[in-house]
Amino acid sequence: MKYNVVFVFSDQHRLQATGYAGDPNVNTPNMDRLREIGTDFPYAISNCPVCSPNRASLITGQYPLTHRVVFNDVTLSPNATSIAHAFKNAGYDTAYIGKWHLNGKGRSSYIPPEERLGFNFWRVLECTHNYNNSFYYADDDVKRKWEGYDVFAQTDCAIEYINEQRKKDKPFFLMLSWGPPHDPYNIAPGKYRERFKDKELEIRPNVPVYTKPYVLRNLPGYYAHIEAIDDALGKLMDANDENTIFVYTSDHGDMLGSQGLGKKQKPYDESIRIPFLMKLPGESIKSFDEIFNTPDIAPTLLGLCGIDVPDTMEGRDLSEVIRGKKKA
Fold it and tell me: Which of 92, 143, 320, 328 is most buried by its number of CB atoms within 10 A?
């Protein structure tokens, strides 16, 4: 029996902003639960901590100097060999839902099938951060709108896809890409923002005094987004069966005032270290205590599913290490 794969990733969620990593300000019970039942990668890093370059490395298993997407809104070659191509060639159905940010031809532009890098099921917009007024394309060039906060609508779409796939005698590879907690920080649903209204927050010790007003203005909204995506993550986890490899991670982190800096593209832990949690069918180690870099993701997932890794991929296949069969 072939494993199904559900790969969920958010945008700009730093490792430090999780309950299991010790952040006293935020509750992430579902991320914490995934860590308890799966494998934690405490040294997972974003090899180029900005959206398009990191996503290109995730999809191709290559480093930026190879795939040539070295900053945002650059087109990843539609001729690139992708992780979806590898799964598709192994008999999988392939699906992508949410933010893409690899086409580079306009953030609201339609992406035709020949430029989708091997994904069949398609509910995608190139890029938006207007999470309450969010659009997508499906099989044609008609722009459709996600209802409400797009994280919840996209999660419901993913669950519907999973339920439909169960009716078929075919494994699937699904990528779900959420926009939050990327700024704008203060537009999460009201019930999540209300949790942080007037709440006294503990600021990281590497935040300079002059940066604290910026941090205190934005940190509540950042945490509100994270608690919202944690709820969505829990709902999605519960929709999967024991034959599924389930991953939660992010494309990069967010400085949020640490070292006096904001957002990403910085060589500091808050920018490059990301949550990476994986639940496997059967046995696996509890913690992968080595560096796990973005180009390693694609070959490792393929290895876990017994699929040949394309020669174009530069990352390491660490599947046997995760299974506890050998050392890194």
Answer: 92
The per-residue pLDDT for 328 is: 72
Q: How far apart are CA 222 and CA 185, in angstroms?
A: 5
Catalytic annotation, residues: 51, 101
- Residue pLDDT, tens place only, 23-64: 999 999 999 999 999 999 999 999 999 999 999 999 999 999
What values do phi and psi take at 159, rounded to 5?
Answer: -65, -40
Say what angle helices 51-60 and 294-304 make with each other, to 10 degrees: 30
User: In this structure, are residues 270 and 17 in contact, taking their beta carbons and an 8 Å threshold?
Assistant: no
Please, are residues 95 and 119 in contact by the beta-carbon 8 Å criterion?
yes
Among 71, 53, 72, 73, residue whose Cα is nearest residue 63: 53
Q: How far apart are the first and last CA of the chain?
A: 27
Where b means 16+ CB within 10 Å and e means fewer, 154-189 reads: bbbbbbebbeebeeeeebbbbbbbbbbbbbebebbb
* Closest-CA residue to 5 (of 185, 245, 191): 245
Query: What dihedral do alpha carbons 257, 196, 145, 134 form, nearest 10°?
Result: -10
Confidence of residue 327 (pLDDT cuts 50, 70, 90): confident
pTM greater than 0.70 (yes/no): yes
Inter-residue contact 68 to 48 (CB < 8 Å): no
CA atoms within 13 A on the CB side of 233: 30
